[in-house]
Write a structure and sequence with these properties.
The protein has 95 residues and is mainly alpha-helical. The protein contains five helices and no strands. The two termini are 19 Å apart.
């Protein structure tokens, strides 16, 4: 997790290493999110055939693929940039 790595570096008194860890994690997740989104977009006409052979289902899956790609990219970025709640009070509030 990015937040644990950054916290460890900050706790060790290495702010430059913490910044580097945050930048590397962010760049990596952007690349992974973009690759995933590109794969979904390229396979949007094939993806529906895993679920059905009806043309209406295939068309709807094909039309919804850009939304899936965008949400997947945002979700990838959110995982790194949000952190993880560590206090029991915050966990009980969020979950």
């Amino acid at each position: 997790m990015c937040s644990v790595r950054v916290s460890n570096e900050l706790g060790a008194g290495r702010p430059h290493a913490a910044r580097f860890a945050a930048v590397v994690s962010t760049v990596m997740v952007i690349v992974v999110g973009l690759v995933m989104a590109i794969i979904v977009l390229f396979l949007r006409n094939v993806w529906g055939s895993a679920f059905s052979t009806e043309q209406e289902v295939l068309d709807r899956v094909s039309r919804s693929a850009p939304y899936l790609a965008a949400l997947g990219f945002v979700y990838c970025c959110q995982q790194v940039l949000s952190g993880y709640p560590t206090t029991p009070k915050l966990k009980s509030f969020l979950y």
